[in-house]
UniProtKB/TrEMBL annotation:
Pfam families: Rieske
Coiled coil: none
Name listed for the protein in its UniProt record: Unannotated protein
Keyword Hydrolase assigned: no
Keyword flag Ribosomal protein: no
Length: 126
């Protein structure tokens, strides 16, 4: 095998490791968002998701949930307006209390969900 073939083989192995094509999984620790004691029921806040995108976190009597703040229409950032998340670009409106579903405007699908949970004293992104 020449040097080029060897390097190509190394690249394939490295790519497989990076993109999860191995039998072994590396467990990532959850991303801490906010302490439970600092985030009472009825609260919502913006945070940065593990992928670097803006997101919104909500806490209700039944638990916590979060959505990407990226509009599913053209990728603008939504902002809270009353009890909705509204896109300033084209007026898309989403209801975070109904699975992020579209309630107005051009978006065709709901906001992307972000998995969050309460672990010990923290609200974390899984």
């Amino acid at each position: 095998m020449n040097r080029r073939g060897f390097l190509r083989g190394i690249s394939v192995v490295a790519g497989a490791l990076l993109f999860g094509r191995t039998q072994t999984a590396i467990a990532a620790s959850p991303k801490k968002i906010v302490k439970v004691s600092k985030f009472p029921i009825g609260s919502n806040t913006q945070f940065v998701a593990a992928n670097g995108a803006p997101a919104f976190l909500f806490r209700t009597k039944s638990g916590v949930f979060a959505y990407s703040a990226i509009c599913t229409h053209l990728g603008c950032t939504v902002a809270p307006l009353g009890k909705k998340l509204v896109c300033p670009c084209h007026g898309g409106s989403f209801d975070p209390f109904k699975s992020g579903k579209v309630v107005a405007g051009p978006p065709k699908r709901p906001l992307d969900k972000i998995k969050v949970s309460i672990q010990k004293d923290w609200i974390v992104q899984a």
